[in-house]
């Protein structure tokens, strides 16, 4: 442990070193890692604490995840843009991605849907889809990067989230914008405010110049090309500007909240 200790940044807890690498693995691989005796031994060797079963490994890895979130947030450059691509490079067909089958994706009636706006904003009015469609929109052709290891390029059109936050008088000194979605099991996800204000973070209404299909999040998804795919919530029902960390569907299962791509 003496050699490892010399490699650590002063003040960094040596217990907080493993989680991020594990969380980039597919779920099955991750489970095997944290339940394998040799892997538990490796965690003990790396961190200097007693990791004897999958439960203690999970607790240790949660601490690593929180540390990694702080480091990624510190390194994040709000002015650096994700790469953009020519439309000739769009992935066809663009894959459906979710933790359920397409047949189980939410079916939302656009005429009845309204976006609820809550929290630290001056205007808490709900927005109809027609009202949102009238806002200025821009197109981006960017890459979706999945935590499972695949990626795909798509064309997304919508309103920059930072423009909408300004329109509703959001307190941009707040820490998060939290999204609640219509997916099964109550999908939700927090977005740190600096990422919410990034010029490419978008309230998306179209895919490939057509109204957003059900498969990709109709009536609205949040496109965040600087984040991994699970940080791009679909079927959005509401957004809340808040200083409270409210967790998220995958975040509550141990995935990094920041999750920059």
TrEMBL record:
Record protein name field: Molybdopterin-binding protein
PANTHER family for the chain: BLL0505 PROTEIN (PTHR43032:SF2), PROTEIN-METHIONINE-SULFOXIDE REDUCTASE (PTHR43032)
Classification via Pfam families: Oxidored_molyb (PF00174)
InterPro entries linked to this entry: OxRdtase_Mopterin-bd_dom (IPR000572), OxRdtase_Mopterin-bd_sf (IPR036374)
Source organism (scientific name): Bradyrhizobium quebecense
Stretches assigned to the Oxidoreductase molybdopterin-binding domain: 106-250
Organism domain of life: Bacteria
């Amino acid at each position: 442990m003496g050699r490892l200790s010399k490699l650590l940044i002063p003040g960094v807890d040596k217990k907080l070193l493993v989680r991020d690498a594990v969380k980039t693995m597919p779920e099955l691989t991750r489970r095997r890692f944290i339940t394998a005796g040799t892997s538990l031994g490796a965690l003990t060797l790396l961190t200097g604490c007693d990791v004897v079963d999958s439960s203690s490994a999970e607790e240790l890895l949660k601490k690593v995840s929180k540390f990694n979130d702080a480091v990624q947030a510190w390194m994040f450059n709000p002015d650096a843009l994700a790469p953009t691509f020519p439309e000739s490079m769009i992935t066809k067909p663009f894959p459906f991605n979710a933790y359920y089958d397409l047949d189980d994706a939410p079916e939302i009636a656009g005429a009845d849907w309204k976006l609820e706006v809550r929290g630290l904003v001056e205007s808490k009015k709900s927005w109809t889809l027609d009202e949102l469609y009238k806002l200025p929109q821009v197109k981006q052709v960017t890459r979706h990067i999945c935590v499972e290891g695949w990626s795909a390029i798509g064309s997304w059109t919508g309103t920059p989230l930072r423009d909408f936050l300004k329109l509703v008088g959001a307190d941009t000194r707040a820490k998060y914008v939290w999204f609640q979605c219509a997916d099964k099991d109550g999908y939700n996800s927090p977005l740190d405010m600096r990422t919410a204000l990034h010029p490419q973070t978008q309230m998306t209404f179209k895919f490939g110049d057509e109204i957003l299909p059900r498969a990709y999040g109709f009536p609205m998804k949040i496109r965040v090309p600087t984040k991994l795919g699970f940080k791009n919530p679909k079927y959005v029902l509401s957004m809340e500007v808040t200083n409270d960390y409210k967790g998220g569907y995958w975040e509550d299962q141990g995935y990094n909240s920041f999750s920059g791509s």
